[in-house]
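Batch manifest, entry 17 of 40.
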Amino acid sequence: MPSSKDNTEVSVVKRQLAALEKTVHELCAKHEPGVLDQQPTPNASKECHLFFDDSINGEDVLVAIGRAYMECVPTDIVHGIPLGEENVRVTITIP
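Output type: structure tokens
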């Protein structure tokens, strides 16, 4: 049979959970579309390779494979900052 101490602890946890659920609902109600909501469509991208110029050894070193989204506009937001002119959005799929 649970003790009164166990019942008290359960009550405290239930109140904390209710407060947390309320906070989550409030945050969801205030949600504005962000970077994660603005993912470009896969059809608008091309696979790309990122190379590092190793001038000491005189060769290019492949450091990542990703996707470049070519249908970007300067006002697109990446990590809260406008993309700007002559830039494209890139995601790394294989480091």
